[in-house]
Model the fold of this input.
Amino acid sequence: MLKPHPRDPARWPRLFTLLLGLLLLAPSFSLTQFNPATLANPDSWHTMAGFVAGFFPLSTQGSFLLDVARETITTLASATAGIALAMLLGAPLAFVTTRALERHVLAAEAASASMLLFKSAVRGVMVILRGIPEIVWALLFVRAAGLGSLPAVLAIGLAYGGMLGKVYAEILESQPRELATALHLQGASRWQCLLYGLWPQALPELVSYSVYRWECAIRASAVMGFVGAGGVGQLLDTSLKMLNGGEVSTLLLVFLLLVGLSEGISLCSRHALERARGGLYLLGGGVLAVVASVLWLLPGWRDSGFDLSAIPRFIHDFFPPDGDMLAELVHGTLETLAMSALGTVLAFVVAAVLAMPAAGRFGSLLKLASRLLLNLLRGVPDLLWASIAVLAVGLGPAAGVLALALHTAGVLGRLFAETLENADHTPELALRQSGVSQVLAFAYGLLPTVFSQWVAYTLYRWENNIRIATVLGIVGAGGLGQQLYLALSLFQQHKAASLIIAMLLLSWLVEQLSRAWRQHMA
Done:
C-alpha cells in the first residue's frame, strides 16, 4: 500500500496564490455592490423561486405566436444579411492588410513607406470596427436614423467586417507561401497570387470561420431588439417591461431553439466542406439565403423611415469628445472590470461543481440533468441574462455580475466536463486501488492533470467577459454600457464619444494583453 505524504509540499504556494487572488478580488465586491451572502439567504431563494414561477405556464396565444414566428424569421434574416455585408467588407480589408501578399514577404523586396502607412491606417480602422461591440453599433444607428432591422444588419456588418478582415488576413498568412512566391517571381499580380497561390488552400478554413461568425451573428441579432433594432429581442424587451412571464419563457425557448438551429447548420456546413462539391452547394445555399433575407427585410426597411442622411449630422455631434469626465470614465472602467472578474470567478466555481456530474461521475441521470442545465445557461445570451437579472436583483452592476456568472458557468461547465472526460484517469485509479478515498483520489489524481487547462479556459473567458461587461449596462446592469446608454438617451453625444473611446481602449488593451499572454504560454 502507498503511504500518503505527511503534508502537501505545494500547500503554501497554493495558499499564497489563493490569498493573493482573493485580495485582488476584494474591491470587486464594493465596486459591484454584489453581496455573496444573499446567495445563501433562504429568503432570497424564496423570492427567486417566486420570480421564476411567474414564467410559467408558457404563453401560447395565437396572435403572440404569430408575432414570434415573424420576428424569428426577421432575426435570422438580419443575421444572414449582416454576415453577408461583413464578408463584403472583411474580404477587401484582408486583401489590403494581409502580410502574406506583401512584396518583402514574397520576394524579399523593400516595402514602400507610403504603403506601410496606408496599411497601418486600414488596420486602425479595423480595430475601431471590431472594437465597438455590435450592440453599441446598433444603438448608435437606432439613435441616429431610426428603428427597425436595418440598424441590426449594419451593426453586424461593421463589427463583424472588422473581425473577418483580421481573421481572414491571419488565415492567409498561415498558409504555405511557396506557390504564391513562385507566381510573384513570374510577374503575377497581387490579385493573381491570392487567387491561384493562397485562395485554394485557405478556402476551407475561410468558409469554416465565416459559418462560425454567422452562428455568432444569429445570437447577436437575437438581442439587438433591446435597443430597438427589431427581431425577437424587441418582443422580449416589451414582455420583460410588461412583466409578462409567460411570454418571456416562450421567447426564452425560442432563443434556445435559435441557438440549437445555428449550431446544427454550422455542423452541417462543416461536413459539407469535407465532401466533393460540398463547398459549391454551400456557396449556392448561402447566396439563396442572403437573397431571401433581403427580400424578407426590404418591406420593413421601406416602411421604417430609416434616414441615412441623418447619420453624418449625428456623427458631427460627437466631436469634440468631452474631456472633463475622466473620473466618470475611470469609475465606469473599474466597475466594468470588477463585474467581469467577479462574474468569471463565480462562474468558475459553479462550472467546476457542475462539470463533475456532467462528465458522468455520478450516474447517467445526473449527467443528463447537468448537461441540460449547462445548455440552458450558455444558450441564453448574456444580455438577456442581464435583463432578467435586473428584474431579479435591481439595476446596477450586481445584475451584471449575476448575468456573467450564469452565462459563463454554462460555457465553462461544458469545457470542464469535456476536459474531465478526455483526461488520463490512470493516476486516479491507482490511488483508488491503493485505498485512497474517492474525494482524495480526484483531488490528487485527476484534478492536477486538468486544472491548468481549466485555468486557461477561465482566463480566456475573462478576456471575453471584459468586452461583454462593457455593454451589459445597456439594459441597466452597470459599467460603461449604462453610462453610454444614459448619455445617448440625454442626447449628450460629447460624453458618449468619450465613453466609446474608453470602450475602444479597453478592448484594444485586452486584445494586446491576451496576445502577449498566449505568446508567453507558447
User: Anything to note?
Assistant: Confidence is low (pLDDT under 50) at residues 1-6. The longest helix spans residues 62-97. The chain is about 80% helix and 0% strand. The two ends are 39 Å apart (CA to CA).
